Amino acid sequence: MTQEVAIVTGSAQGVGLGIATVYARAGALVVGCDRQAAPDSLARLSNYHHVEADLITDGAAKRIVDACVERHGRLDTLVNNAGVGNGQPFEKTTQEDFKRFHEINVTALIECCRHALPHLKRSHGSIVNISSAFGLVGAAQSAGYVPTKYAVVGITRMLATEYGRDGVRINAVAPGLIHSPGTAQRIASNAWWHRMMIEGAPLGRVGQPEEIGEACLFLSSPKAGFITGVVLPVDGGWSVAKFLPNPDFA
């Protein structure tokens, strides 16, 4: 069976590291990219190749896709994970803040899709875009971030509609609170965040980066061959849990 060839953007840390690790462990030939160097856990894998690049710079998306095709001869899967998070209340969010979020979370994703799609049409491959649970519900004090993650949902559905007849499937994963160095600090220091994001989810825990990777791997696999245009929440139920059970109610 031919090995899957996958690009994972933002692969050096956090969710992206988890995704790249899952694909590599599954036997895929993975080309990762990030502004940072590859961590040792990936760099030592023979089926992982790393490209250091900042996706908001001109030509970076094309360079990454070209590097993958030159190395492996084709491209089967693009996982658009690279992005920036957090945000501020709307009135404190400047025009420059909005521009920064849009450049990486939307424009860079579009450019990666643009350069990958000609190859994905040949391989009848797939794209998995990383949105957010905040791209499915209203969320205060995350201006800049939330609109871009809603945009990822729209881009996913638009591309799925446009490229389905070419045999290309485009889906998205919407993570909830996932463990990373940044979220670990926030959880430890912010009781409100812990209450809203962990206690407010049915499963009552933080997700692991590899759990996002497993969802991506499924969506890009033949097992999901009749699935396109879907936004899959992987959030412990957080996005639907607005009325949790009362433990005092008998």
UniProtKB/TrEMBL annotation:
Chain coiled-coil ranges: none
Alphabetized SUPFAM superfamilies for the sequence: NAD(P)-binding Rossmann-fold domains (SSF51735)
InterPro entries: NAD(P)-bd_dom_sf (IPR036291), SDR (IPR050259), SDR_fam (IPR002347)
PANTHER family named in the record: 3-OXOACYL-(ACYL-CARRIER-PROTEIN) REDUCTASE, 3-OXOACYL-[ACYL-CARRIER-PROTEIN] REDUCTASE FABG
Family classification: Belongs to the short-chain dehydrogenases/reductases (SDR) family.
Protein name, entry field: SDR family oxidoreductase
Species of origin: Ramlibacter henchirensis
Lineage: Bacteria, Pseudomonadati, Pseudomonadota, Betaproteobacteria, Burkholderiales
